[in-house]
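User: Sequence in, structure out. Go.
Assistant: Echoing your sequence, followed by the structure tokens.
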Amino acid sequence: MKKIQKTIGIIVVFVVVLFACRKEQMEIGNAEDPCDCASEVSADFDILERHIQLAQSEFIVTDHVLGGGSKQVRFRAIEKDAEYKWFIGLDVEVEKETFKNFGSQWIGSTIPITLVVKKEPNLICFPDDDGYDSITKTFNIYDECHEPYLLEGTFRMAEKNRTDSIDITIDFKEYAPWYDCLTADITNFDGEGSTCPGNYFSGSKSYRFFQVGGTPSGACESIGAFKAWNHLNGVCEMKYFYRIDGDPNKEVNKHLFGRKIN
């Protein structure tokens, strides 16, 4: 009888310990804090430059812009579902996103932009947030031929998640018949040292973007639809295709990421 009681006691202790361990494991898996993804009301916004005045042209997030013609610059609030008030010179706008055109007379100017945002704050996560924020940013308007040329130089580029890289050089030059600053030699785009001289095409650009379009031709039979970005975070990006020996059946598409090295 004593032996049976002893056995039952051991079983009871084992069960108690087992459930205690399970309870501890359940406590380890705590639910995520809902405030981890929350943020205070912010008036931060992006400045976006359209590189050419065409409906299908790209808007590039930037910190400065190139002047000329009637350059469209957009301002986009990051905070959603709020009240917005933009102060752009003497103009006041109240949409989440707005824009202004800056003609060539603005070249050499520094433009201040202020955004005021009001929104119902998240007082559970941020009890001191009053739901109000304002930010002022400035940007310079450069002449397109007298600018810092962020996309001129040598760039060390590789495909995403690859370690083997190539150095691609973009060298802006003036070529006939354009004699402007929208033509550039592109060297080593194929990793074999080939150069596509800029006299076969005239491109378009903004402060952080350069593009040459069209179908490969002439001495540039091997390259086409070249696009290059120098993003705000310092990451450079290039997207283009080339044809080995100019053969349309041997087309290679590239989408590379990297950094400017000089």
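User: And one key feature?
Assistant: The helical segments are 2-28.
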